[in-house]
DNA sequence: GGTTGCACTTAGCATTTGCGTA
DNA sequence: TACGCAAATGCTAAGTGCAACC
């Protein structure tokens, strides 16, 4: 009861903070009509809620909350029955849920909700023994025979050699087209060429050796033992973070204008103005919340004189500043190769100096060694803090973590660190508090590092352990659906959703963030119940904004008991009430941990994603396929996971155009094939009429041409299918975070697909442990 | 048992790089 | 060689979950 009250109070607090005016607005700032507000404002609406369900077990009103035309159907999804991804992401992701309620009404609602509780404790949970822990070592550890990284450096080398030509050489026509020169000139040219070739060879050799060194230097931490769960390192040394460059004031000819008059701003005020000016092209600056947050934070940084003068944002003219930055960006784009190379060299130097640390004697790459520069906060979705000023991080804000006996990083001249600590139970190198939410941020290692890799490996091992326990866990949550205790029923249904739909846990959120939810924080307004829908029984329609304000829309047939429970959970509740008001992620995870050590809601996502990949790969791959077809199968399996996990992306801006180009290419190829076939027919006839060696050769040539063109066509068509199917689906997130890489490596080895066709360089670095240790027999 | 802070993973968008093609 | 595009990489927001504390 107390828990429910607290949940309610929290929500209440949040609602008060977020003005109803803001909440009822569409992302574009326009007010949208809100029937839901009306409904909940009326006292008679108390039990009617946005969730429509039948009265009793009889016929049901089949109500769909949003315009069905807005929802793209996506069928054929095995796991959830019918997962639907909305193609119109931009539109739908920004869709805001209308919510408004007076606190008095909310209080009444809480009391009503209390009436629904059965509080007879039933001991339904069974503790189950743990299984093996930690990272299992693979039975077979095979050395990687391919050199997946070879391709890219060779190409770079080629280009470099080309670039190193003297200016004279650059202008010389090459090869056969060269004009005849004098013998002296030829001789000089020849010796030049020899020189160049030798130089080339030397460089190639050096590079090869470098690479060899790097390979042999590569730390195979997975072949060593782990320190302990708490101790993360024995020694850690680094250079500290790299600070963002100081602000460069605008040239005198670039003016900020207020009320039509040019105003020279102080450097601090001007810097913040430049943050806004840079974003003028972006939709953010059209949003009222963004504008208000920016303006109030900006005002705080102004001098008293500036603050007195600048009273309204609408009178501020940033256009000159905006133009200046656009021009600067153009200039950068139009730099010569040499100028670009200077910048590139400087960046490499920085990475070399700050981008690596020494961890237990091994050189490890740092993930983010550059401190975040100041700017304006860009939240995702309808974030109440968008537009606020992200302040410049000073050395005095930064805590350093390294070993006691190491060389302590030097703070910038005239400054000192916030503190220097030597805590080997954490993995971060530096940390600071960001000023928007007051939360800590960290500088940590790259995913290719031991610390990250080990944790990743462990994650997949936990998911594999779940595979062994999942049947008994499923039996248990089915039993819980019939518990006499409301809390246990809710928990049973929540775990069912987490398992079946790969929903996130849904922790309680602080008051000042976008209104997004996960499983445990679902509200009544996020589901609609349909006794029958599209020929299926007991359908739950989900519609809510999840992490990053990505819309989750799905119509799922569920078991009858789940459906009945959901009806019970929403009884006497209003749209904004919690669907699972008796549980939190903490007690849900506690229950899961009792079933299996290390089990949390998150593990189900990893487990279901990896299982789906393995099943789909088995189903979609056959031996007679070409490598291209196998890759398409892999992408399809990957896509099934991305759909399950609801990993969406905005369609690429150039999507339509590039598809059109591809289609034109396909058409052209088809025409070429037709032409080639005609020629083949003629060659056949010629050979039949007057057989000779020449005619035979010609015939063979034409046959090969048709075959080659047909293969090219097939490749293009596969590309077209793949691209179309990937339009709004992001494959990368699941590949990097949810799919046990050993499944991929085993599949590549079994089906002779080069690993670099599936994993790029970064991914191969991250999954080096899996690539090294996995053979083709690996089973998740 | 709940709250809070901290440490870490997961996530999509923005920017840069480099490849294929005209 | 320049250009346009897709892929790769970088950036940082937004989640999860644990442990200390009350």
UniProtKB/TrEMBL annotation:
GO terms for biological process: chromosome segregation; DNA replication; DNA topological change. It comes from Cirrhinus molitorella. Residues 326-353 form a coiled coil. Its EC number is 5.6.2.1. This is DNA topoisomerase I. SMART domains: TOPEUc. Residues 40-51, 84-101 have a biased composition (Low complexity). Releases the supercoiling and torsional tension of DNA introduced during the DNA replication and transcription by transiently cleaving and rejoining one strand of the DNA duplex. Introduces a single-strand break via transesterification at the specific target site 5'-[CT]CCTTp site in duplex DNA. The scissile phosphodiester is attacked by the catalytic tyrosine of the enzyme, resulting in the formation of a DNA-(3'-phosphotyrosyl)-enzyme intermediate and the expulsion of a 5'-OH DNA strand. The free DNA strand then undergoes passage around the unbroken strand thus removing DNA supercoils. Residues 1-218, 679-698 are annotated as: Disordered. It is found in: Nucleus. Keywords: Coiled coil, DNA-binding, Isomerase, Nucleus, Topoisomerase. It is an enzyme of class 5 (isomerase). One of its GO terms (molecular function) is DNA binding. Residues 19-29, 54-81, 111-123, 161-171, 181-218 have a biased composition (Basic and acidic residues). GO terms for cellular component: chromosome; nucleolus. CDD domains: Topo_IB_C, Topoisomer_IB_N_htopoI_like. It comes from the Eukaryota. It catalyses: ATP-independent breakage of single-stranded DNA, followed by passage and rejoining.
């Amino acid at each position: 009861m107390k828990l429910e009250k607290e949940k309610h109070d929290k929500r209440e607090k949040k609602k008060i903070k977020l003005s109803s005016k803001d909440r009822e607005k569409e992302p574009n700032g326009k007010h949208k009509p809100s029937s839901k507000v009306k409904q909940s404002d009326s006292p008679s609406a108390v039990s009617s809620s946005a969730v429509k369900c039948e009265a009793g077990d009889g016929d049901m009103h089949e109500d769909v909350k949003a315009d069905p035309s807005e929802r793209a159907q996506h069928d054929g999804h095995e796991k959830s029955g019918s997962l639907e991804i909305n193609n119109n992401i931009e539109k739908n992701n920004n869709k805001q849920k209308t919510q408004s309620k007076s606190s008095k009404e909310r209080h009444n609602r809480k009391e009503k909700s209390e009436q629904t509780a059965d509080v007879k404790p039933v001991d339904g949970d069974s503790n189950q023994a743990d299984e093996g822990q930690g990272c299992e070592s693979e039975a077979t550890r095979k050395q990687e025979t391919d050199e997946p990284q070879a391709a890219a450096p060779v190409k770079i080398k080629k280009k470099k050699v080309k670039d190193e030509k003297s200016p004279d050489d650059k202008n010389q026509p090459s090869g056969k087209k060269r004009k005849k020169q004098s013998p002296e000139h030829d001789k000089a040219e020849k010796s030049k060429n020899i020189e160049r070739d030798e130089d080339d060879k030397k460089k190639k050799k050096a590079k090869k050796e470098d690479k060899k060194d790097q390979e042999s230097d590569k730390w195979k931490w997975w072949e060593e033992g782990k320190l302990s769960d708490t101790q993360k390192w024995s020694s850690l040394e680094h250079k500290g973070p790299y600070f963002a460059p100081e602000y460069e004031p605008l040239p005198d000819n670039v003016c900020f204008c207020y009320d039509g008059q040019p105003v020279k701003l102080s450097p601090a005020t001007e810097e913040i103005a430049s943050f806004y000016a840079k974003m003028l092209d972006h939709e953010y600056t059209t949003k009222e919340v963004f504008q208000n947050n920016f303006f109030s934070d900006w005002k705080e940084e102004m001098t008293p004189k500036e603050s007195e003068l600048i009273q309204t944002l609408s009178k501020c003219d940033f256009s000159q500043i905006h133009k200046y930055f656009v021009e600067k960006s153009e200039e950068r784009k139009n730099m010569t190769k040499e100028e670009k190379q200077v910048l590139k060299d400087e960046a490499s130097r920085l990475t070399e100096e700050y981008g690596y640390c020494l961890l237990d004697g091994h050189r490890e790459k740092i993930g983010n060694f550059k401190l975040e520069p100041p700017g304006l906060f860009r939240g995702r979705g309808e974030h109440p803090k968008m537009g606020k000023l992200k302040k410049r991080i000073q050395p005095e804000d930064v805590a350093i973590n390294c070993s006691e006996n190491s060389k302590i990083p030097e703070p910038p001249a005239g400054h000192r660190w916030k503190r220097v600590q030597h805590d080997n139970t954490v993995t971060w190198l530096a940390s600071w508090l960001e000023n928007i939410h007051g939360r800590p941020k960290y500088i940590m290692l790259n995913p290719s590092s031991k610390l990250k890799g080990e944790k990743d490996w462990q994650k997949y091992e936990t998911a594999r352990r779940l595979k062994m326990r999942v049947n008994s866990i499923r039996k248990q949550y089915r039993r819980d659906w019939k518990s006499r205790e409301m809390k246990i029923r809710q928990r049973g249904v929540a775990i069912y959703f987490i398992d079946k739909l790969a929903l996130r846990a849904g922790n309680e959120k602080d008051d000042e963030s976008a209104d997004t939810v996960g499983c445990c924080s679902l509200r009544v307004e996020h589901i609609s119940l349909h006794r029958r829908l599209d020929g299926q029984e007991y359908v739950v329609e989900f519609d809510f904004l999840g992490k990053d304000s990505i819309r989750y829309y799905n119509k799922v047939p569920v078991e009858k008991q789940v459906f009945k429970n959901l009806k019970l959970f929403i009884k006497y509740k209003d749209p904004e009430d919690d669907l699972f008001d008796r549980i939190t992620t903490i007690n849900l995870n506690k229950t899961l941990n009792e079933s299996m050590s290390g089990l949390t809601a998150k593990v189900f996502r990893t487990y279901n994603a990896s299982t789906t990949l393995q099943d789909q790969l088995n189903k979609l791959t056959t031996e007679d396929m070409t490598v291209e077809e196998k890759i398409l199968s892999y992408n399809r399996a990957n896509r099934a996971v991305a759909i399950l996990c609801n990993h969406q992306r905005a369609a690429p801006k150039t999507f339509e155009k590039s598809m059109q180009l591809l289609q034109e290419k396909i058409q052209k190829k088809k025409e070429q094939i037709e032409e080639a076939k005609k020629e083949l027919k003629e060659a056949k006839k010629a050979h039949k009429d007057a057989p000779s060696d020449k005619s035979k050769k010609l015939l063979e040539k034409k046959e090969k041409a048709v075959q080659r063109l047909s293969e090219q066509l097939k490749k293009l068509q596969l590309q077209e299918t793949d691209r179309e199917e990937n339009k709004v689906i992001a494959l990368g997130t699941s590949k990097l975070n949810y799919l046990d890489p050993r499944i991929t490596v085993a599949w590549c080895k079994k089906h002779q697909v080069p690993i670099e066709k599936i994993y790029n360089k970064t991914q191969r670095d991250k999954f080096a442990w899996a690539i090294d240790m996995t053979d083709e027999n690996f089973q998740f």
